[in-house]
Amino acid sequence: MVLKSAMKRFVYINDDSSQDSFCDNRISNRKYTILNFLPKNLLEQFSRLMNQYFLLIACLQLWPLITPVNPASTWGPLIFIFAVSATKEAWDDYNRYLTDKKANERKVWIVNEGRRKQIEAQDIHVGNIVWLRENDEVPCDLVLIGTSDPQGICFVETSALDGETDLKTRVITSACMGLAFEQLHKIKGVLECPNPDNDIRRFDANIRLFPPFLDNDIYPLTINNTLLQSCYLRNTDWACGVAVYTGNETKLGMSRGVAEPKLTAVDAMIDKLTGAIFLFQVVVVIVLGFAGNIWKDTEARKQWYVRYPSEGPWYELLVIPLRFELLCSIMIPISIKVSLDLVKSIYAMFIEWDEEIFDPDTNTRAHAASTAISEDLGQVEYILTDKTGTLTDNIMIFRRCCINGFCYGNEHGDALKDGELLNAISSNAPSVMRFLTVMAICNTVIPIKSKGGVISYKAQSQDEDALVKAAAQLHMVLISKIGNILEVNFRGTVLQYEILDILEFTSDRKKMSIVVKDCQNGKVVLLCKGADEAILPNAFTGQQLRPLIDCVEQYAQLGLRTLCFGWRELDEGEYVEWSHMFKEANSTLTDREWKLAEVCQKLEHHLEILGIAAIEDRLQDGVPETIETLRKAGINFWMLTGDKQSTAIQIALSCNFISSEPKGQLLFLNGRSEDEVFRSLEMVLRTMKITSSETKDVAFVVDGVALEIILKHYKGSFIELATLSRTAICCRVTPSQKAQLVELLKSCDYRTLAIGDGGNDVRMIQQADIGVGISGREGLQAARAADYSIGKFRFLKRLILVHGRYSYNRTAFLSQYSFYKSLLICFIQILWYFFSFSLFSGVSGTSLFNSFSLMAYNVFYTSIPVLTCVLDKDLSEKIVMQNPQILLYCQAGRLLNPSTFAGWFGRSMYHAVVVFLITVHAYANEKSEMEELSMVALSGCIWLQVFVVALEMNWFTVLQHLAIWGNFAAFYAINSVVSTIPGLGMHTIMFRLFRQQSYWITMILIFAVGMGPVLAIKYFRYTYRPSIINILQQQEKSGGPIYAMAIENLESQLKPMDSDISPLSVTQLKNRNPVHEPLLCDSPTATRRSLGLSAFSYFPTAQTRLSSSHSRNLKNS
């Protein structure tokens, strides 16, 4: 792969002889073909360990010697489950085929032998010249060589590629500038470009046209000279380009792929519980198999009706154990995965249907791209958030500036209305004029003049848009860009500048520059703007920087974004020498960005710092309230931003991210060398340990330079610091550092959620356990890479507290109930082996239940009622939003852990004993048939499970009643029909049982004895030792003024929470001697050590977890 990425391709323009070297433009996103669908799909499904296990069981049942039941009891559900998954895959793949077919057969125009010709898009080859008309979709990746615009520009909509809805400008290469319409049909040349890749932001290539067009000169190409596949040509009559990448080798095609599946905490726990059940199953099989072989060698051979040969085959000892393995295989529910996948898909639909998280401003609904991790939303412990566009609106407004030491806009907060600045402009003050010139022309903004003469601007950066518009309001109006000539109108005077070179902005350089020639006096000037740490160190020797530094700090304290402007007049000889180096670096195909940065630094020095521009980016509505609520829920926040430290701190204060003194304290982690960083880290860590026992809200602040040193040399200490602090502010961080911080927290076994809105947040979003993208002004690139997308940050509160919590609660119940119902039927079988069969046929591994009953039990009788848990709500949405602290139950995994599972395990064992003893006592006599006994036991299981589901539900709807009681009635209806069929071994069974009074008495006894203790325990817990959930449920049911008063009292009780638990909150819950739920209950208070009368004592033991703040350090230590 490395060798391939270092290679390059040569594309000969308009040359049919070289077209066969590359793939055609046929698009194929299909996963399967008709021939490979069945084997490939089966291979994928059987790659899962659980499916392999069930396949092994099903194959063993084909061995007549060991199978105690009809193989259909396992093969039927297995085939049904695989058929459902395969059908879904086939349907999805068929839809992909239809989409591909439509795209491949679309008509396009190309140039062939000097004439335009219409063909299908799939027949385009590399090197063809493709013609586009307005609103046409770009069929492949093109290098732009001509447009209808005299400036050589065109406009494209890239929303299908990166989600950005604003039109982008693309420009033809300077090699093709000025070519006539007819010449474009006959153009010849060669493109030197890298092999296909998926980087839609970068295209480092060169073009060389053959004579007579140009004399083999090499011209560099960038991404701004391309039209990428699936973009649309807008506001341009026509454009043409050379096909460089086609088919699945386009940048979009290379970007397609299946994201790595994410394993939720619930799924991980289910896998562990499944492994534990399997080990238990192995033990049971060994014990029963051993007993069976002893019985066979001792008692069985004495019975006249048992005919064992004196010498059996070599596998004789395995027959009875394997028979028991088949009978005990139902301990692991075969339907659990399908059930979980189904309910998780419904959770995702609930999110998308939720009107409360619909953004009317942008007409954006929440979208769940991943349907498998909804329950993880309820277990989030760390939220890592971007700032600009995520916490703020990303609507930039020019507010203040400092020019030549004078600050403007201080009185009214608006420099555009500052009389002193307007007077300085009127008097043509040189420093102000240069400052405005940089504002107007040091950018990549394209001015567009309408037919009415109104000028609008197309900018790819909100900062540049704000600066150009502000300059226009201050009479320095950018009016046109034609080729390399731009014009500025200042008070009626048109000033012309020739653009010589553009030194583009990168996240590493943190600045952009432009070299222009002033057409008024012929001087060559470098204009530069960027972050203060990138511009101020390059000031000329002797310039007083202290006023500028103070100004930057002052603006940052106001929460404003700052940009520094620089200026340098260049000597012509210096520029010519540098220009050769720049052209050489700009023409290389390998490490172009790094080489360009090195060359740019040779010019961007000895700058005259003109001043500072301050831009306001307002907070989104509801951000402070959302952060405050989620912090109450025990969630820790980290802000990861590229802004300077002071700006980030002010934004953090304004949005309740951190608390001001004296309630809060900020610890600064700075340094430029390893020693400085080590001392700073050591001091911050020591302070954090000392203050962790106090109620003060402590946060640490670190910048990108220090962070780079820390992640390289002091990662262990930083992890300790991270686990001690609820809040962190990381400034001047790069996209890769954002992803590294997410990975660091994940390595400590914390559930992380990353949220952002721009392309620089994609790596962080993809790295986190849950990625949330905001459909913002920077486009949809983050939203498309995320698991969930929302319109505004404030919707995150409902996404976590309502959808995340409900999903976790429902999944916890569904998964444990699935095991419960399987264990119940299996335990009855085991009891039958030990007791009943020891009296009749010994420990031989014969099944109590017939094959039809076992198959219907898992597929029909017990699956439908439990699926109604997707509608269950223990508390209303209003109460959940008002009491975010209850999310701690989910974060701590209180509803699904080994202890709660042990409760369900014990419940299944107890119910199995009840069903077995009562059934045997009532029907195990000479007059009762085996089929009657089996059906009575099965009926008892159904009765218990119906009432277990009904008891566990908190919120009933008509649909739930129909599913629970309708399925109960369907059990009797199905078996009544089956009883009329002679060949199934159940002929007339149900009709005989219906007439027996003892049957109904047995069912009532099973219900009373089985559910009585469960009801008693729940009543005791609910009445005498209620959890906060129970208290809220009681208050909600009471309603009226009493309810409102009770909620107010409850909130006052919950206020000591922060002081009792300390700022560390739920992040200490996992590996700190956890106290799990008792058997047969779901309240967190059963085995909790009391903390006194505080309402927070209902939560998991804070003293146990927090007895020492330092003991929280590392989960994996």
Automatic annotation (TrEMBL):
<keyword id="KW-0812">Transmembrane</keyword>
<dbReference type="Pfam" id="PF16212">
    <property type="entry name" value="PhoLip_ATPase_C"/>
</dbReference>
<dbReference type="InterPro" id="IPR032631">
    <property type="entry name" value="P-type_ATPase_N"/>
</dbReference>
<dbReference type="InterPro" id="IPR032630">
    <property type="entry name" value="P_typ_ATPase_c"/>
</dbReference>
<feature type="domain" description="P-type ATPase C-terminal">
    <location>
        <begin position="783"/>
        <end position="1027"/>
    </location>
</feature>
<feature type="domain" description="P-type ATPase N-terminal">
    <location>
        <begin position="11"/>
        <end position="75"/>
    </location>
</feature>
<keyword id="KW-0479">Metal-binding</keyword>
<feature type="transmembrane region" description="Helical">
    <location>
        <begin position="968"/>
        <end position="993"/>
    </location>
</feature>
<dbReference type="InterPro" id="IPR044492">
    <property type="entry name" value="P_typ_ATPase_HD_dom"/>
</dbReference>
<feature type="transmembrane region" description="Helical">
    <location>
        <begin position="852"/>
        <end position="871"/>
    </location>
</feature>
<dbReference type="InterPro" id="IPR059000">
    <property type="entry name" value="ATPase_P-type_domA"/>
</dbReference>
<keyword id="KW-0067">ATP-binding</keyword>
<feature type="domain" description="P-type ATPase A">
    <location>
        <begin position="104"/>
        <end position="168"/>
    </location>
</feature>
<dbReference type="InterPro" id="IPR023299">
    <property type="entry name" value="ATPase_P-typ_cyto_dom_N"/>
</dbReference>
<feature type="transmembrane region" description="Helical">
    <location>
        <begin position="904"/>
        <end position="924"/>
    </location>
</feature>
<keyword id="KW-0460">Magnesium</keyword>
<dbReference type="InterPro" id="IPR018303">
    <property type="entry name" value="ATPase_P-typ_P_site"/>
</dbReference>
<dbReference type="Pfam" id="PF13246">
    <property type="entry name" value="Cation_ATPase"/>
</dbReference>
<feature type="transmembrane region" description="Helical">
    <location>
        <begin position="936"/>
        <end position="956"/>
    </location>
</feature>
<comment type="similarity">
    <text>Belongs to the cation transport ATPase (P-type) (TC 3.A.3) family. Type IV subfamily.</text>
</comment>
<feature type="transmembrane region" description="Helical">
    <location>
        <begin position="276"/>
        <end position="295"/>
    </location>
</feature>
<keyword id="KW-1278">Translocase</keyword>
<keyword id="KW-0472">Membrane</keyword>
<feature type="transmembrane region" description="Helical">
    <location>
        <begin position="999"/>
        <end position="1020"/>
    </location>
</feature>
<dbReference type="Pfam" id="PF16209">
    <property type="entry name" value="PhoLip_ATPase_N"/>
</dbReference>
<dbReference type="InterPro" id="IPR023214">
    <property type="entry name" value="HAD_sf"/>
</dbReference>
<dbReference type="Pfam" id="PF00122">
    <property type="entry name" value="E1-E2_ATPase"/>
</dbReference>
<keyword id="KW-1133">Transmembrane helix</keyword>
<dbReference type="InterPro" id="IPR008250">
    <property type="entry name" value="ATPase_P-typ_transduc_dom_A_sf"/>
</dbReference>
<dbReference type="InterPro" id="IPR023298">
    <property type="entry name" value="ATPase_P-typ_TM_dom_sf"/>
</dbReference>
<dbReference type="InterPro" id="IPR001757">
    <property type="entry name" value="P_typ_ATPase"/>
</dbReference>
<dbReference type="InterPro" id="IPR036412">
    <property type="entry name" value="HAD-like_sf"/>
</dbReference>
<dbReference type="InterPro" id="IPR006539">
    <property type="entry name" value="P-type_ATPase_IV"/>
</dbReference>
<keyword id="KW-0547">Nucleotide-binding</keyword>
<feature type="transmembrane region" description="Helical">
    <location>
        <begin position="819"/>
        <end position="840"/>
    </location>
</feature>
<protein>
    <recommendedName>
        <fullName>Phospholipid-transporting ATPase</fullName>
        <ecNumber>7.6.2.1</ecNumber>
    </recommendedName>
</protein>
